[in-house]
Automatic annotation (TrEMBL), chains A, B:
This is LacI family transcriptional regulator. It comes from the Bacteria. The lineage of its organism: Bacteria, Pseudomonadati, Bacteroidota, Cytophagia, Cytophagales. CDD domains: HTH_LacI, PBP1_LacI_sugar_binding-like. Keywords: DNA-binding, Transcription, Transcription regulation. Residues 6-60 form the HTH lacI-type domain. InterPro entries: HTH_LacI, LacI/GalR-like_sensor, Lambda_DNA-bd_dom_sf, Peripla_BP_I. SMART domains: HTH_LACI.
Length: 343, 343
DNA sequence: CTGTTAGCGCTTTCAG
DNA sequence: CTGAAAGCGCTAACAG
């Protein structure tokens, strides 16, 4: 920030009036003569005056900045959520301070503390996969910051939350696989601590159970993380089984893509021999060969709604008694990597 | 921001000392007795005091916030650059205010003005594809904000800049195609106004010229944008030519992926009948079938270096006379979608 | 209609 | 060593 910024007192001196008069003109208060207002406005423009938000924030105790913390920004998933957030807040004059925790619990704390110091007006948080205690959230909350948790749930922590119904998405996907005749359906999971990992696995298990397909332990693998590399590794071990699966439901598209490359290399046909289903419906997924069946998530809307709830809280500054818990519905996008339903 | 934040005066009242004493203790000034300091520090911790950065910023004329504007956040490319930026500034205590212009010139102006009001300490800008005049940059600069332009060059605007040598990347790629025996090499371009589009096309043209391959107008197509959809459309029209190309150099991977799907659908072999090369080397590109030959860009480093330059400017507050112009080198990643070099 | 005063939270002279 | 006072840029209450 440059020292030479024109201030309200500069204008005041220039015109030999008091700063308050300038202030009134600038905020077009009714208690000022039209001619004076005009003179002042003209001078302000001429001298390239712009109000110092810092001073205003100090006065109003409101920065109009929202703090956003996501695990990683370099993913289609979270960047799309941010997109939704930005589209929502943009029109209301709020700015975003965005940071990524890189899935680190300590970094998440550090970032949130830094944002609290800057006095952001509120927080939009998607917790890191290593966040299992929520003292830092509690602390932020009890300091009076409104806080909305999105995408990843925090069991045991009370707050406004917006999540996707992972369970339902997984259930749909796996039930579809069953209906298309698959009997040995494997699952490659994501990072163990994530609520999404758990919910998707639950959906998988319940879909099998409900459809009387036996649950086979060796067909369930938990990846290290949610990367394509993990997909490669896990798929390799699935293909080393005595009897290989006839379908694989993957935690996400990245894993599915890794798995697909391994399956293809072995000369195994998709979906004839193995059906493959991902999760997230990333933009490229439909361009793969075969195109990937995947569970689409309303992730843009997730961001939008989270931001809306935060803004609502900010407007209605009364402490609302209950928290909102919004669950958005995902949708199965059927493509070539899975078989067609029998007629 | 909650009203109830503990301030330095609260502490002062509590202990019946003056605010300045508290301030001195908190900043461990030498002019204060150890015992007092300890008492104050303890109370501060107990009352959960945290300094108000707003007040400090107002005083120091420094917010320790950097403004970042990118065309879109939902792309692997820019989010990786932001990644680099954040990794660089994180350790230095700077925070990032990030916004996307959505390739809109007006939005870019709006965002930068908003950030200027917040008094960010400096700007990191990658201009939108519709930004062809730079008055807003000049204005920001002349208001005293340091500014670094990255990834997309602005001809006619002087500032610190960090870009990738698109020309060289394109040249490498196309020369490689020539050397592997391709003779009818097509090019699908990106958004016309972008410096990167122009530079990549130049590289393409010069590589052809230098290697005595004739330049055929009908083989050069400018896409509407840089999406896979555009790749589909453009590739379709290339395949409608009397004589189809034996290679396609695409502006980016997204276009190449779209093109690939069309080529495959027609039953044309890649790379035997048509070689395909992209640009950006997105993470999925190596998982496509065939895996995509692409020009890798040091985009993370681009972010890192841009941030470094901005921070350098911020440290050395003297107006340095000359601007830095850094050009990073891309690298061709050869995969299955292009032929092997003859031995 | 306009100027004076006070104060947001903090640091930094300047006097003790 | 410590307190009082001034000021960062701005607004709002209070006198005119």
């Amino acid at each position: 920030m440059k020292k030479g910024q024109v201030t309200i007192t500069d204008l005041a001196k220039e015109l030999n009036v008091s700063p308050s008069t300038i202030s009134r003109a600038l905020n077009n208060s009714p208690f000022i003569s039209e001619e004076r207002k005009k003179v002042i406005m003209d001078l302000a423009k001429k001298m390239n005056y712009s109000p110092n938000q810092l001073a205003l924030s100090l006065l109003n105790k409101r920065t109009k900045i929202l703090g956003v913390v996501v695990p990683e920004i370099t993913s289609y998933y979270f960047s799309t959520a941010i997109n939704g957030i930005q589209d929502k807040v943009g029109s209301s004059g709020y700015k975003l301070m965005i940071s990524q925790s890189n899935e680190s619990f300590e970094e998440e704390i550090r970032l949130m503390e830094a944002m609290a110091l800057v006095r952001v007006d509120g927080f939009l948080i998607s917790p890191s996969s290593n966040t299992t205690t929520f003292d830092h959230f509690e602390k932020i909350k009890s300091s009076g910051f409104p806080l909305v948790v999105f995408d990843r749930d925090c069991l045991g922590f009370e707050a406004d939350k917006v999540v996707v119904d992972d369970y339902s998405g997984a259930f749909q996907a796996v039930e579809y696989l069953v209906k298309t005749g698959c009997k040995r359906i494997a699952h490659i999971g994501g990072a163990a601590s994530l609520s999404t990992t758990q919910h998707r696995k639950m959906g998988y298990l319940d879909a099998l159970a409900k459809n009387n397909v036996s649950i086979v332990d060796e067909l369930i693998i938990n990846g290290e993380d949610s990367s394509s590399e993990s997909g490669v590794t896990c798929m390799l071990s699935l293909l080393n089984l005595e009897v290989i699966p006839d379908a694989v439901f993957c935690y996400n598209d990245a894993i599915a893509i890794g798995a697909m490359s391994v399956i293809r290399e072995r000369g195994i046909q998709i979906p004839e021999e193995i059906s493959l289903v991902g999760f997230d419906d990333e933009p490229y997924s439909s361009y793969f060969k075969p195109s990937l069946t995947s569970v689409w998530q309303p992730i843009y809307d997730l961001g939008l709604l989270s931001a809306k709830i935060l803004l609502d809280n900010l407007m209605a500054d009364n402490e609302s008694s209950s928290y909102r818990y919004e669950v958005l519905k995902p949708e199965l996008m059927i493509r070539e990597s899975s078989k067609k339903l029998p007629i």
